Amino acid sequence: MAREIKQIAIYGKGGIGKSTTTSNLSAALSKLGLRVMQFGCDPKSDSTNTLRDGKFIPTVLDTLREKSMVKAAEVIFEGYNGIYCVEAGGPQPGVGCAGRGIITAVELFKQQKVFEDLNLDVVIYDVLGDVVCGGFAVPIREGIARHVFTVSSSDFMSVYASNNLFKGISKYSNSGGALLGGLIANSMGSPYSKEIIDDFVSRTSTQVIEYIPRSITVTKSELQGKTTIEAAPDSAQADVYRSLARKIAAHTESKAPSPLGVTELREWAASWADNLLALEQGKVLSAGAAI
Prior knowledge:
It is a single chain. By secondary structure, this protein is α/β, with parallel strands linked by helices. It folds into 2 domains: 6-259, 3-Layer(aba) Sandwich (Rossmann fold), CATH 3.40.50.300; 261-291, no CATH class. The chain is built from 11 helices and 8 strands. The chain has an 8-stranded mixed sheet, sandwiched between helices. Strand 6 (147-152), helix 6 and strand 7 (179-188) form a beta-alpha-beta unit. Helix 1 (18-31) packs across helix 10 (236-250). The longest helix is centred in the C-terminal third of the chain and has 19 residues, at 262-280.
């Protein structure tokens, strides 16, 4: 009997640190002795850069545009500590569906049985989470990824994107789609950011997998074209990513979340705005007290 490959998808609003988190997770998982593939699903094709000293790699779609037949080995590149790096790519600007790269790349790898042949332990899909598109929903809709995690800060638009993702997971949860493993709270540093995220996950029936602080160490590492795990392995920030990796590696049970409705989400946000204003004025309220 073939062993199960853990396939997970990490979603998040553009600019929230999703690829930074994913690449450090991949690096930390590889240091645990696991055979890892990072599958970039953003049309910008920059998911795996910090696993390869800041270098871009040819994408699946770009390669297919150059030749009609492509072997998967032609679009798989070795990164830090033996991590397999793939970039699905996107269409030419202004033409086609941005999710086409994911659909095409996944089909190519399925047909050629790449994951099995490489004897992988973990495949991580790094997916843009604030675009409503059928292609970006593929890892969820078709159950390609079994577990989904979302990266979010406490900023409203980041939470809004996560809540939309929860709606998509709920929609497909009864037809073999992926389920939610939890939320990775990123850029924790501003006052009350943890309390806001904790309240949100409580109301949507999920959990925080890890709290990742905002850190200059990440910036310094990425300016070198590297992950924090590679550039600053002894740092406190690297310890956080290693903690996340251990939790992801051990994670087995995911479930359907309970997303908030649009009005409910706006009221929740407004309640926190009132709370923070009151806190600034020295009037302490409980989290989400207005709802």
